[in-house]
Amino acid sequence: MTNAGIPAKSRPATDAANAARSAAVLMVLPKRRRQWAQSALVSVAAAVLALILSAAMFPWAFTTYEPNAMDLMATLQPPSFEHLFGTDALGRDILCRSIYGAQISIFVAACAVFVAGAVGTALGILAAYFRGPTDAIIMRLADVQFSLPAVILAMFLVGAIGASILNLIIVLTLANWARFARVIRSEALSLRTRDFVLLAELAGASPLRVMVRHIAPNILSSLIVLATLDVGVIVILEATLSFLGLGIRPPDPSLGTLIADGRGYLATAWWISVLPGLVLMSLILACNTLGDYLRDRLSPTLAMKW
Amino acid sequence: MSKYVLMRLLQSIVTILLVTAIVFVVIRVIGDPTHLMLPPEATAADRELLRRTMGLDEPLVIQYLRFLGDLAVGDFGLSYRFNQPAMSVVLERVGHTLVLTFTALGIAVLIGVPIGVMSAVYRDSWIDLTGKLFAIVGQSAPPFFFGVLMIAFFSVHLGWLPTGGTGGVQYLIMPAIALGWYSAAGTMRLTRASMSEVLEAEYIKMAKIKGLPQRVIIYKHALRNACLPVITFTALQLGVLLGGAVSVEAVFAWPGLGFLILKSIEDLDYTIVQAAVTLIALSFAAINLLVDLLYAWIDPRIRYD
Amino acid sequence: MVTGVADVLQVENLTTCVATRNGIITAVDNVSFRLSRGATLGLVGESGSGKSMTCLSIQRLLPSNSVVASGSIRFKGEDLLTKTPRQMEAIRGREIGMILQDPMTSLNPVFTIGQQVGEVFRYHKNSRKRDIRSKVLEVLNRVRIPAPAERYHSYPHQFSGGMRQRVSIAINIGNHPDLLIADEPTTALDVTVQLQILHLLREIQQESGMAIIFVTHDLNLVARFCDDVAVMYAGRIVEKGPVKTVFADPKHPYTRDLLAAIPRISKSGDRLRPIPGQPPVMTNLPKGCRFEPRCRLATERCREAYPDWVAQKETGGGLRAGRRQWGQNDIAVHRPSGRS
Prior knowledge:
The structure holds three protein chains of three kinds. By secondary structure, chain A is mainly α. In chain A, 71% of the residues lie in helices and 0% in strands. Chain A has a domain at 109-305: MetI-like fold, CATH 1.10.3720.10. Chain A is globular. Chain A starts with 10 loop residues before the first helix and ends with a helix. Residues 1-13 of chain A have low confidence and may be disordered. Chain B has a single domain (1-305), classed as MetI-like (MetI-like fold), CATH 1.10.3720. Chain B has 13 helices and two strands. In chain B, helix 5 crosses helix 8 (169-199), helix 7 (143-157) packs across helix 10 (214-252) and helix 10 runs antiparallel to helix 12. The mean pLDDT of chain B is 80. By secondary structure, chain C is an alpha/beta fold. Chain C is 30% helix and 25% strand. Chain C is built from eleven helices and twelve strands. In chain C, strand 9 (228-233) and strand 10 (236-242) form a beta hairpin. The model of chain C is unreliable at 309-340 (pLDDT under 50). The chains are: A mainly alpha, B mainly alpha, C alpha/beta. Chains in contact: A-B, A-C, B-C. At the A-B interface, helix 1, helix 3, helix 4, helix 9 and helix 11 of A face helix 1, helix 6, helix 7, helix 8 and helix 10 of B.
């Protein structure tokens, strides 16, 4: 600003601009605050998820107890250094049972999301590619899934085929594939009319090749977002079924059964229900937060379709 | 318009037929009802006799058609546990579940929509941040665990509210909040997203140019457009709530439909399960249909296409 | 320059800043112009040159990330920047109207035409309830919407683009405003419809004597419909004055280039000459003259500092401004109007 070429009279403009800048800075502050809150939340979520995942993968590094080892000398102990989460009526360590419970919950949820995602995506792409009767059949089947609340559909199916880990995965898949199919179908429908897909067809690519090589890669980001958000939903569903006695069967611990176990002791030993429940909530919270973050970053338009 | 209604009606009928077929197949093929109806010491001949009298030896298609016929008159057979027609047992419980779900839905809408609107209008303000926090925690708390937490605090610790059962309003408060909280969070987030998008629209700018008061712009011009996805979501929430009601009813010993289905599955009382699931699917199809018609009423572009 | 009483609008040193992801930009930089009753000012420039931000500043409808930093906007003698939001609500839609670019999105899809036009009477509380319908029909008639009584209950999606723009005009002239801002009102329309709409605006103007700010990037339309013109580039007005004078003898190299880039049927032999390059990125403006990177007359010194504004001559209330060529000292240097 010391340049002699600048005449004095241009200074008011500069001052005005500076005043405006400081005013504008004040306006951006709330946005900064939000961004800060957002990134803090995402970091915490990632840390929590990492902690729970590593505990589930390497339980021996986090606990020295066995999930089903009873200690009748130490029943209903409140949280202490020895038993961080306390013990239940049979003297089993709640922290240890929570870790093994999380292990099973995560395993079941991951398998169910993977299978439901794969099946739903495949059906969604098929429906969008072939349209007509294929589309109609797949979408009516999706309607069937949507016409029953997931918990009730899952209860009904578990009641029919019995409770086991494998059955649980099957049931959770059947109760969740349609969500993927619907969103992926609408994405694929718009891709279907895009030039590069039409060109590939003109060039003589087979339907399979078009679907696998041209459509599938372009819905990947949506799929990742959907799947991440779905993990939270499935974890809740699994915990609900287990809580109701239709999922993981005792004595195997699952976060849902642990909460159910402690219901009779809310007056005397609140930790039996509440602490595994907080682990469950943190797990879901972390998954949802990361899912939201991924959606904002990868596929913002998905928000309304979801 | 009428063509649109007809199309939607047809789709609903197809969906209902598919649901009943699947319910029928799952129950008839996987679980043989004669195992439940006869004492364990019954002979194979007894079982065969019962199968014949029940018509179970006929082809599946015939059985399904007869099932549909019975369904049309609401006859699902006798519940062996209650020794009453299954449908009447189910209908007795429906009222309790409806009270619970609609109270929860009311809580979800009354909390979710206003906070969502405020969050969108005053973006990045403290109300927006608080709302977001509330939504994130809300969507991460399974209703049954939230219920357990509330019992631990309000019933056991403070002794303010009963732990379960039915009676006056005090019995409804905790189950309804436990159930509604989760949906309130979703409603809030969707309202915020939808409202934020609409507030950016050119016709909102035009409304400001017209010099309309802010409340008219927000509640008349913007909300009317933003409520479309919220309405669909709310209707779909009925399903989520009905599902969540099962676990909440179990936690609070609320004598509703979900609790009944749970007990019937445990006791292998399949006529009740069948009746209840079919009823739920039917009401669901009806709700979805109503939502689409409501949509057409709100958005003239759909109505006239 | 004399401040005429006939001036409806006097914008002086208007500076508007926008906070963006990449920093704070000065979208409107020290802009001044005035507009008298019944006159039409063409505001010309490329997209992003600050035309729309200028209009929104006048309406006090800037997006939440923008703020008017300095200057004054005097409308009928009163500074709009000192009005409360409540007072602005009373002014908008009654004394100042504004037509938006895209008629397909500027009408609310869920309300009828009658409801949307009626609102300007209803919420400005200057009509009795039972009069609203007849007032709506009257104004729909004025913007030449055929069979307004039948159209009263129609929804926007049942109208064509041209008809919707007529509805927009009806909404904005219903209360006989003193100023109408038309922000590229015809850009989204067919050429034939374009002229119909502009003729309609001119007719209404002649009846009511309202002033119009006509924002466009189409110099042909400016030549046909405007009295004065102001050319904006990168947030600044680079040249302004009566249309005839500016078009006959453009002083600023940017104006010259713009005029040279217009296709003209009469001179079919001429080659069109597009302006090379792109407008500057607003977060990263050249240090000196903002047009320097694209200017054919630029010199080394233009890169360092903005050449002085010079008053060429004053005509009919409009100020002509050109750019002094460095080293040409024969033109007297004046303070440009509005900076005093």
